[in-house]
Amino acid sequence: MKPRTGGWKLGFGILGFWVFFALALSQLTTTSPTFDEGYAVLRGYAALRTGHLVPIGHPPFAHWLSTLGVALEPNLPDPRALDGWYGDLYDDSSNDLMWKRGLDADRLTFLARYPILLLGLILGAVTARWAKELFGWQAALVALTLHALSPNLLANAALATTDLPVATFYFFTLYCWYRFTQKTNLRNALLSGLCLGLALTSKFSALLLGPTLALLGLIHLIYNSQNRRLSFDVSRFVLYSAFIILPSAFLIAWATYSFALRPYPLAQYLRELADLTDLATSGHTAYLLGQLSPKGWWYYHLVVFAVKTPLPLLLLIVYGVSLIAYYLLRRSPSSLFSLPSSLLLPPFLYLLATITIFSLNVGYRYLLPALPFLHILAASTMRHAIRNTSRLTFYLLLFTFHAASTLLIAPHFLAYFNELVGPQNGYKVLADSNLDWGQDLPALAQYLDGRPVYFSYFGQADPHYYGINSTPLPGWPPPTGVADYAPADPAPGLYAISASNFVGAQLDQPNTYAYFRELTPLAVVNYSIFVYEVPEHEPVTTFAQCAPPLLNQNAVADLLANRAVRHITFDCANSLLLPADAALLLYPEGQSSISNLQPPVYEWQRSDGTVYYRLYHPSITNNQLPITNSKYLSLLDYDLTPSTLTLRWRVNEPAPPPVSIFVHFNWPDGALAEAYDALGVPAEYWQKGDIISQRHSISPDLPPGEYGVEVGLYSLADGTRYSDIALASYQK
């Protein structure tokens, strides 16, 4: 008698659903609304109350889903009374609804997110069912486990955005199509049309379903004609596709726009698609591996997939592809047009589209429609391991590793990176919705515990709602009431900077927070917000740079928040100025100081990550006794080498310009053998207490011998010597 296995299989499946639900709920209930979620709360509810669908650049079905929850919130205001309503200013309207009306924003967010979470559970069920139909119940349980432990699905199932819905209905459409190809009847055709319509109105990326279904249909026709299946009716297949599936999809899509007729059906869909196309064409600043680009990179999503997909899943995908390739090419080449095409072709085409078509380099969420297929592909390998102890052991180790990787990041799934990078290094590779989408205000509030903070926030939520006593800094979107902020010399205090702003992903000036790149943070809140403390210090009052100056005075004013400062230019190649007061020294790319300085406090980087200039904060040690004193300069020390003489002076009093420093090499009888004049810091810039280092190159043509060395300061106007100092002899 065969043992009954249905009970434990059902129990394992239920456990998988509970794991997914619990993990997604842990993020759903502990995060603030992400960048786009306020729009979802506004749009569907406003359309329900007024019939007007606010144009925000996306199809509306995902927002209708969120409305199922939002509509349960009592005492919601009339949308027509919201700020910006009559101008379709959805930023203003959503901000008014969420943060200015005294509503419970956390509850509103929960209600908007919850239907998406339930949709994620349904996606897991359909994934397991298709895996079972293709590869058996073992594969179904593996696919469900991969779904339940997918950090990227968990992250997006807990958000009221368009990404999980489009992934779900993209997958449902192709599953229903697969069933339609297996049994061409009215029911399967209607289900295919229904899911296609819902996918197309979830997100514009679902338009890729058009060529995908066309190619799959062609493959299906070729395969069946080659195998001469008597049960296959070509005319029925074509007629149902053209007159049932496509019209059904159109009607469903039109229904999500409330069957609007003016100026024609689905006019708003086409307008918003055109707007998105214009946005993609005009460019959207993307961040990858420390670089910024308005056009992105063709390989962006490949890198995203490689560093944010769990390593066990990557291994199983490679294994699954190799097994299917072996089966197709070595055992049954004619099967190239059979069932695996329904599994392999959609994710392949989708990933190909992210390289060639999807120019918006935003995040892993654009890859979600491929994930359920890849989970089934990975699960297909289970049948090769079930009867092999060593392979089964390897499987168990892989899934243990996968579970640990996912559980250790919980509930911060948006910030997940696999072990190739690690979440602590995620900001060095990616930003935006891959890591920081404005979700961690509650965690920041808990960390600060009421302490005042300067805050650069990447998001639309209101920090003060969460009890964050913040003064806004430049961020995205640009906040109001921004504090006077000196990027090169921030005021003392506590600073919190969202990771996306930290790397400059969307800021007008990407180097706004370059000062903090050189510091060690006090904390990194949930991998997405950096917290620093700038100690008490004297504000910078002198700005010195190499001649000719790289920055004009307006650019310097931007760096120092329009602070009044002393501007100096000097010859960096042979001089060094250490001002007596708090100062910044600018060295351009390729130029270094004649003596060691402390590490730079600020690096201005180009979009490709290369350094344009560096700023140093020099310090002066004033307890050194001078070798000799004079009215204007005191010689502190010198360094004499076979090729150079470097003199270090302290300013006692500004000398009347023009002046220069002389260096004389004298024969033993006192006659002049060689003379050098140089002063890279003009006297007009001197201030009492400044330290000036001046390097003089010794001519290689100086004849061998022993020389007396005499240095000093003299007037270029009349030759008057203000100081005359004899140094140690020089032997060549």
Brief overview:
This protein is α+β, with helices and mostly antiparallel strands and 732 residues long.
Report on this structure.
It is a single chain. This protein has 732 residues and is an alpha+beta fold. It folds into 4 domains: 7-409, no CATH class; 440-534, no CATH class; 542-616, no CATH class; 633-731, Sandwich (Immunoglobulin-like), CATH 2.60.40. The protein is 42% helix and 15% strand. A 5-stranded mixed sheet has the order 4-3-5-7-6. The chain has a 5-stranded mixed sheet with strand order 9-8-11-13-12. Strands 10-18-15-14 form a 4-stranded antiparallel sheet, with no helix packed on it. The longest helix has 31 residues, at 105-135. It starts with 5 loop residues before the first helix and ends with a strand. The model has no long low-confidence stretch (mean pLDDT 90).
